[in-house]
């Protein structure tokens, strides 16, 4: 009888433990699903605000999730931080802080998902921005790494026109580089990076083919590059398109 009571008590405890365990599994499952839905909701809100040009609201939404492990959230936060830094109303010190914070968010996004093309793109952009605060030597020193991340982003997503445009900007910058910066590049690299306006033009056209009229700055640089190549007729065509581009963002207005 004692043995039977002990077995019955044990079975009751086991059943109770099993129920607790199953309840815990169920709650954990709900929590994971809820977390997943929450991330999707935040990304949906973020993309809506980005499309609406609501830079400050977008940043305030995403900065709440700066400790997230989700690469999709983190690269969007890097972009939002950079966009906020670009606003004319942002002070010089805030621009600096936002630039370094954006680089950290992009770096973390890459660590979480190395196969995320946007993480590579925004890491390259943010690394370039930080160079503006650390001087021309650092900026040139980072140039190869920046281009590698842009190229990796294009490998992962060949249809992303913005990244193709950024490689064009990289080429344009090195084609236009003044002699004293070339001397710095020669001191930093055994074979310093170089490019031509023809190469830059090829990338700007590739970007336009991937997504026509996607970005006012690509139109502007098509015009500028044609001017560098002394083709005023084509320069006028693309500069006119840039001028007529509907200005949704502050950058569009600057263009």
Automatic annotation (TrEMBL):
GO cellular component, alphabetical, reads: mitochondrion; mitotic spindle pole; spindle microtubule
The record's principal subcellular location, in a coarse class, is cytoplasm
Manganese among keywords: no
Q: Which UniProt keywords apply?
A: Cytoplasm, Cytoskeleton, Repeat, TPR repeat
Give the source's domain of life in one word.
Answer: Eukaryota
- Locations listed in the record: Cytoplasm, Cytoskeleton
Gene3D superfamilies attached to this UniProt entry: Tetratricopeptide repeat domain (1.25.40.10)
GO MF terms held by the record: microtubule binding
Family label: Belongs to the RMDN family.
Q: How does it assemble?
A: Interacts with microtubules.
The protein here is known as: Regulator of microtubule dynamics protein 1
Q: What is the lineage of its organism?
A: Eukaryota, Metazoa, Chordata, Craniata, Vertebrata
Q: Which gene encodes it?
A: Rmdn1
